[in-house]
Amino acid sequence: MLWIGLAVLIVIIAIIVVLISFIRGEFYFSRVRDNDTLSVEVRALFGIVRYRYVIPIIQFKGFAQGIMIKSEVVNKASTKLKDETKDHITKDKVIAYYNEVKVLLENTLQLYSWMKQTLARVECTELKWITRVGVGDAPETAITTGAIWGIKSTLLGFTIRYVKLMTKPRVDVIPQYNQKQFSTEFRLAGRIRVWFALFAGVRLLVRAAKVKGGLRTWIQLALKTRSRVKTAS
């Protein structure tokens, strides 16, 4: 009986440790000349679970074909390429995604409120956004620099409004006078407790269940998205 009690105690402690641990995420984007890189990394269970999604190729093919992207899924623990997909993001696909979001809003009770409450539990651990810009003329470069500062202030103000900022942001716009240049590096890292992520998921299901056909709509869109990803690969 003593060993059984000890085993149960160990299991309970392990569950508590897992629940109070963090799910960590990092979004990174950089553009240097014509080279774009975008990556999303997710880590959980103290780094035991770790996946990295990379988009090393982003090419604008025109308004008709849209944007061609190549994405990779890497298991960082073993540094192995798990999956690779290519896709074109066209105007029609953007409209379709927008319509799907509208459907989810209509089939989930107060989804916007749920998003705000969930984001309030997210802790921002790193925020870096450095941009270098030059248009070949000093006065025009100064005007462009000010405009970019305004855009950044608006976007960052929205981010800081909804999440907990745990670090000092590193944000700058560096003018490159008398030369044509544009490069930017953006990194955003955050974390959320496992227990609250699970709790938020349960609350989302409850809100969907309160709308007639809500759960069925979520399941159908999830299956549709999964099928779309498989087709793209």
TrEMBL record:
Pfam families: DUF2953. Keywords: Membrane, Transmembrane, Transmembrane helix. This is DUF2953 domain-containing protein. The chain crosses the membrane at residues 6-23.
